[in-house]
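Postdoc handover notes: sequence design on the structure in folder B. Input C-alpha cells:
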C-alpha cells in the first residue's frame, strides 16, 4: 500500500494537539486503505517497546485521514464493524 510519507507526522501532530499533557509518545502501528481516507491505528511507543500494560492505551479508536486534504478525525463507525472479541483472526 502506498501511503504518503508525511502521514505519520500528520497523525502524531493531531494527537499531540488533541491530547493535552500526554505522558506517552504516539506512534502509528497500522494503516489501512479506507477508500478516500486512510484508517490509522496508533499506540504508545512506550507500549510497543516494553510491552508493559502500564503504557497500553485504552479506547484509542482508529483515526481517519482524508487522502486529499489530510484532515484527521476519529473513526467512530469502526467500532460497530470491528471484531473486538479478542479472538485471533486468521489471514
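Designed sequence:
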Amino acid at each position: 500500500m502506498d501511503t504518503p510519507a508525511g502521514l505519520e507526522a500528520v497523525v502524531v501532530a493531531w494527537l499531540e494537539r488533541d491530547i493535552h499533557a500526554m505522558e506517552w509518545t504516539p506512534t502509528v502501528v497500522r494503516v489501512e486503505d479506507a477508500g478516500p481516507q486512510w484508517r490509522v491505528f496508533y499506540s504508545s511507543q512506550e507500549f510497543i517497546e516494553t510491552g508493559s500494560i502500564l503504557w497500553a492505551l485504552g479506547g484509542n479508536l482508529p483515526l481517519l485521514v482524508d487522502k486529499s486534504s489530510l484532515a484527521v478525525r476519529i473513526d467512530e463507525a469502526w467500532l460497530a464493524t470491528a471484531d473486538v472479541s479478542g479472538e485471533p483472526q486468521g489471514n
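Context for whoever picks this up: The chain has one domain: 7-77. Don't rerun without checking with the PI first.
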